[in-house]
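Structure in, sequence out. Go:
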């Protein structure tokens, strides 16, 4: 990853999501991201070696991603709880994930989540001709986003 700072990377990825979904507010962001990708959609793919599925879903991180973005964008102090707390992601069966390098914080999970959600959103748009066409027309795209 080219952006080595957790908070700057998070800000960059979430700004991309915010612009893509024309959100502007936390509630719009959560509703549109969840509506577009599905609130129960897993954020991360299964581990390619063990096939363990990380348990993080869109509904688990969408609101906190936007909250962290707001703190960073407005120059606020990042609170210890929950963002700088150690975080131990697990698989859907409660198992620890083998490819996580500790110490790992909740902010790091949110950074990785924002990156994966942005790429998943763009992939969905680029591979669906109807969505690709809609995103090129601001009025039409805004109408799509208002459906969520």
């Amino acid at each position: 990853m080219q952006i080595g700072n957790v908070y700057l990377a998070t800000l960059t990825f979430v700004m991309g999501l915010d612009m893509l979904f024309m959100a502007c507010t936390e509630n719009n962001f959560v509703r549109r991201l969840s509506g577009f990708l599905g609130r129960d959609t897993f954020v991360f793919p299964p581990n390619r070696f063990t096939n363990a599925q990380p348990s993080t879903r869109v509904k688990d991180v969408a609101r906190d991603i936007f909250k962290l973005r707001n703190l960073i964008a407005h120059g606020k102090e990042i609170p210890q709880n929950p963002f700088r707390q150690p975080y131990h992601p697990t698989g859907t069966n409660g198992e620890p994930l083998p490819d996580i390098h500790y110490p790992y914080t909740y902010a790091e999970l949110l950074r990785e989540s924002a990156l994966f959600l942005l790429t998943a959103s763009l992939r969905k748009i680029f591979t669906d001709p109807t969505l690709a066409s809609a995103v090129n027309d601001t009025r039409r795209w805004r109408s799509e986003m208002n459906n969520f």
